Amino acid sequence: MAKAEQETSSFGLIGKNISYSFSKAYFNAKFTSLNLKDHSYENFDLVHIEEFPALINNHKTLKGLNVTIPYKEAIIPYLNSLSKKATLVGAVNTIKFTKNGLKGYNTDVYGFKKSIQPFIKESHKKALILGTGGASKAVAFVLNELGISYKYVSRNPSGNQIDYKGLNREIIGSHTLLINCTPLGTFPDIEARPNIPYEFITSDHFLFDLIYNPEKTAFLLSGERKGATICNGLKMLELQAEKAWQIWNS
What we know:
Rossmann fold, six-stranded mixed beta sheet, six-stranded parallel beta sheet
């Protein structure tokens, strides 16, 4: 029994160009605070999602993984099962290693909802979701739960999505909740920001950026200059991480 208790438990983050991520530092600090000397967390930077099976085969002590841009949807075919919420959302950001194989979960929904709710006002009836990747699906799921209508903004729009070039005073004015789900502005490319007409943002707007490094992205700074309320994704990261930790240990 003593040997089993000493068994190493490793966890990690899979994504692409993820050196900016705070997840590794967050979890390793958590392991230290809990005196879990046999636990470790590392970044697994994958150039292609096809590298995932080899990663699993080469790391036999893995117990759980987080998933970030750009693999929250692409990871799904490699999993054995999905939680109900991950199925409904259509994206996975947490993987648990179980006796029945790899199971995908979505804790972004929990993290985003808990972090955005304190800022929502009666005037926030309509939202623009910037980006259409896996993270945006969790955002859309939460907005549906909160009764907030939304439109996707995309560089390559399909269906009823909006092109960035089509954004104007009327659209920005009527959509007072703007949520950046793109990686634009992530460290070290901190000057980048979504291409929206910032001149039409007012103090009635609320800008939420899923990015947390840097603390204030160019997107958030642009909104702040116009008097808008702003919030970054750090609280969301912490909340979804704690929910992932609960899943791994359940």
